[in-house]
Design a protein that fits this description.
The chain has 361 residues and is mainly α. Among the domains are: 106 residues; 140 residues, no CATH class. Helix 7 packs antiparallel against helix 8 and helix 8 packs antiparallel against helix 9. The longest helix is centred in the N-terminal third of the chain and has 40 residues. This is Magnesium transporter NIPA2. It is found in: Membrane.
């Protein structure tokens, strides 16, 4: 019975996580559409300090969509392992990229399309091989988990490293090294996910009629979550303000997700009962998502399609098929004529060498 309920909760968490990505990804499009409508009307832009977007219903629709996504994401942690929910957050980037190509006329180049495909494949692999976390159904059990020596050491190390980065490394290298601020918000994010898991359990108990508001752990988790999320937002905004978004986003995703996976493995012992093929599958799926997100962001400003593959590749294909460039083909493109003549000469030379002719020398 408990195993059946566990699978039921798993699928509820999976649906909530995917719904969260759809809502959050769509929210960016709605907000952008609202801001573009205001720009066409001549209103002062938000980047210039204007607040006309508060009167635009599309912007509010985007805000509500993001709120619904965050609520769904919060609820997903109460049902499914963090190892599954956190990586699936990458799908919101995928949804936003696809919808923007349809509704905002933003071109999705070849790298972006491959990145989207890889993100979907990686997410599918992770869902198939996702670990089943050790069941924690009450705040008392969660309290016992949080008091585990392994997690206490892990949390202490995170706090110490974060304080060093904030007060020592940050003032010196935060403006020049992209990893400083991103590392701060990423490792603290691991603790915020643990707080969300605990609060999710508290809400489930509250709905069941249990007096969770009298439990001190509920308020400790809530206070810790506020501190962690505030710190995350602060340093992520600093990183985005200083460095290129296309670089910040994939690096943040990798470090944040890795921190959450590590924290979740220590706290909930998710990996203890996994088979070797599931462990390999989970890491393979995660790495595939990383590559997909990198391709989607790092090359988003590169205008590259199948139509403009390197000319040399097309020439090589023709040579491989036994068809050499004709003199007419070369002189038909003035800017490429010298390169073509050079290629014809080198091709003839190579053919002569293969045939044993001394004329090539």
């Amino acid at each position: 019975m408990s195993q059946t309920r566990g699978r039921y909760d798993f699928y509820i968490g999976l649906v909530l996580a995917m719904s969260s990505s759809i809502f959050i990804g769509g929210s960016f499009i709605l907000k952008k559409k609202g801001l573009l409508r205001l720009a066409r009307k001549g209103s002062m832009r938000a980047g210039q300090g204007g607040h006309a977007y508060l009167k635009e219903w599309l912007w509010w629709a985007g805000l509500l969509s993001m709120g619904a996504g965050e609520v769904a994401n919060f609820a997903a942690y109460a049902f499914a392992p963090a190892t599954l929910v956190t990586p699936l957050g990458a799908l919101s980037v995928l949804v936003s990229a696809i919808l923007s190509s349809f509704f905002l006329n933003e071109k999705l180049n070849l790298h972006g399309k491959i990145g989207c495909l890889l993100s979907i494949l990686g997410s599918t692999v992770m869902v198939i091989h996702a670990p089943q976390e050790e069941e924690v159904e009450t705040l008392n059990e969660m309290s016992h988990k949080l008091g585990d020596p392994g997690f206490v050491v892990f949390a202490t190390l995170i706090v110490i490293v974060s304080l060093i980065l904030i007060f020592v490394v940050g003032p010196r290298h935060g403006q020049t090294n992209i990893l400083v601020y991103i590392t701060i918000c990423s490792v603290i994010g691991a603790l915020s996910v643990s707080c969300v898991k605990g609060l999710g359990i508290a809400i489930k108990e509250l709905l069941a009629g249990k007096p969770v508001l009298k439990h001190p752990l509920s308020w400790i988790l809530l206070l810790s979550l506020i501190v962690c999320v505030s710190t995350q937002i602060n340093y992520l905004n600093r990183a985005l303000d200083i460095f290129n978004t296309s670089i910040v986003t994939p690096i943040y995703y990798v470090i944040f997700t890795t921190s959450v996976l590590t924290c979740s493995a220590i706290l909930f012992k998710e990996w203890q009962h996994m088979a070797a093929d599931d462990i390999i599958g989970t890491f393979s799926g995660f790495l595939t998502i990383i590559v997909g997100i990198f391709l989607l962001h790092a090359f988003k400003d590169v205008n590259f399609t199948l139509a403009n593959l390197p000319l040399s590749l097309r020439k090589d294909d023709r040579a491989a098929n036994g068809t050499l460039l004709s003199t007419y083909d070369c002189f038909n493109h003035d800017e490429e004529s010298s390169a073509c003549l050079g290629e014809i000469q080198s091709t003839e030379s190579l053919s002569a060498r293969r045939n044993g002719s001394l004329s090539a020398f």
